[in-house]
Design brief:
288 residues; D-Maltodextrin-Binding Protein, domain 2; Alpha-Beta Plaits; 3 domains; five-stranded mixed β-sheet; 33% strand; Preph_deHydtase; prephenate dehydratase activity
């Protein structure tokens, strides 16, 4: 089995993929959409993509590409605790240079805003496709007075030195990842710690229906189906047109969720199942 992840080596996505698929071939992909395309074209079997961060919220690129471009079923989820490190090349440290540039993924830079503002206020911030690509660039440009923000795996992978450890603004920072496959595939996924079961639906409301969203929520509420998340995203068909992504805290059953879906369809809603799956974590969240 080949499993894709947002590359290059040394990203948090690779950490998630390693935890779920320790004995599988892991394939780094340059972008999130590319990794999803590779599943669709049978170049890889599964891919691991980021979907939500504690600080930055949803990863809209993943969500929109999943909905509008590659409708791949969700088969598992995994949560990773995010510990960001400030890395420099050993050559720059020997010279005693202060980094003029700090490279990383936009989310990582945002997650370390307070640290950067206080410690390196004059350094220019530059965006990269991933934290791993920032570390890779730094390792191949030792003559440049620069630094990057990445994880410990990237430091080991690219021979960089951790100058400042755990620089994220919030200690509770975590990112949730999804495992995507192809329709009809029955791959088994297991993680270190099980968090919960989840069913994800996409709901499009009927036009000109007063109180439609209230009735959608009521269909779940009276059945005592707990919703852990509800989010709107544009349908890209016109201003003011949205669909809703809803996470239900249980797997698909034979009565409750199908009953809610049938009720919504009677109201004129379009309901699509994105996945019914188990969510894991790399650490026991009960003791973190």
């Amino acid at each position: 089995m080949k499993v894709g992840f947002l590359g290059p080596r040394g990203t948090f996505t690779e950490m998630a993929a390693r935890a779920l698929f320790p004995d599988k071939e892991l394939i780094p992909c340059q972008t999130i959409p590319l990794s999803m395309d590779k599943v669709s074209t049978n170049e890889i079997d599964l891919t691991v993509v980021p979907i939500e961060n504690t600080i930055e919220g949803s990863v809209n690129l993943t969500l929109d590409y999943l909905i509008h471009k590659q409708r791949l079923p969700i088969i598992a989820g995994v949560t990773v605790t995010i510990a960001q490190q400030f890395l420099m090349h050993p050559i720059q440290l020997e010279k005693g240079n202060v980094p003029e540039r700090v490279l990383s993924h936009p989310h990582a830079l945002a997650q370390c805003h307070d640290f950067l503002k206080e410690t390196y206020p004059d350094s220019q911030l530059e965006y990269t496709n991933s934290t791993g690509s920032a570390a890779e660039w730094l390792s191949t440009n030792p003559e440049v007075p620069a630094a990057c923000i990445a994880n410990e795996l990237a430091a080991k992978e690219y021979g960089l030195t951790i100058v400042h450890k755990d620089i994220q603004d919030y200690s509770s920072n975590r990112t949730r990842f999804l495992v995507l496959g192809r329709p009809g595939d029955t791959h088994q996924v297991e993680g270190p710690y099980k968090i919960s079961d989840r069913t994800t639906l996409m709901i499009t409301l009927p036009e000109d229906y007063t109180g439609a969203l209230h009735q959608v929520l009521s269909a779940f509420a009276w059945r005592k189906l707990n919703l852990s998340k509800i989010e709107s995203r544009p349908t890209k068909t016109g201003l003011g047109n949205y669909y809703f992504i809803i996470d239900i805290d249980q797997k698909m059953d034979d009565i409750l969720i199908p009953g809610a879906i049938s009720e919504l369809e009677v109201l004129g809603c379009k309901v699509e199942l994105l996945g019914s799956y188990t969510c894991y974590s790399l650490t026991d969240l009960r003791v973190v």
